[in-house]
């Protein structure tokens, strides 16, 4: 009986975690495109371009002060590339990887206001993350993943981490499997 209760408890915890995760990521839209005619299966190694970065946020409007978005995105992309059989190298990579994130803190959008029963213009900061994989020799783009969503001011670092994890994971679900 204890095993049965444990299974039920674990299942409930997983369901609650999934519900919370889907709630904090419901606004994130993810797309990815592969260059037509390219066999991504022949690319096995990668190196990072020095240009990979998240936009600077000196006022701390969207990135928590104790959180390094650059390091987190790098870690997540490396995790997903490893899942696809890719290996990081320092010399003679098959492909290069970079990313950039952009934030528009002054974005406005029409949203339903439940109190007024009508759409009103609201301040909704927007952000996007772009991950690019390119041929190391030609620098031709091979695959691009994009995630875009609302940006909450002063989000908790746990929430930012979960949202980035979701965005990168969903991007690479669209990467062709080997």
Layout of strands and helices, then pairs:
Layout: H1 2-25, E1 29-34, E2 45-48, E3 53-54, H2 69-83, E4 87-88, E5 95-104, E6 108-113, E7 118-123, E8 126-135, E9 141-150, H3 157-173
Parallel strand pairs: 2-4, 2-5, 3-5
Antiparallel strand pairs: 1-9, 5-8, 6-7, 8-9
Describe this structure as you would to a colleague.
This protein is of the alpha/beta class and 178 residues long. It has one domain (28-173): Double Stranded RNA Binding Domain, CATH 3.30.160. The protein has three helices and nine strands; from the N terminus they run αβββαββββββα. The chain has helices at 2-25, 69-83, 157-173, and strands at residues 29-34, 45-48, 53-54, 87-88, 95-104, 108-113, 118-123, 126-135, 141-150. The strands form two sheets. Strands 1, 2, 3, 4, 5, 8 and 9 form a seven-stranded mixed sheet that branches. Strands 6-7 form a two-stranded antiparallel sheet. α2 runs parallel beside α3 (157-173). The protein starts with a helix and ends in a 5-residue tail after the last helix. 20% of the residues are buried.
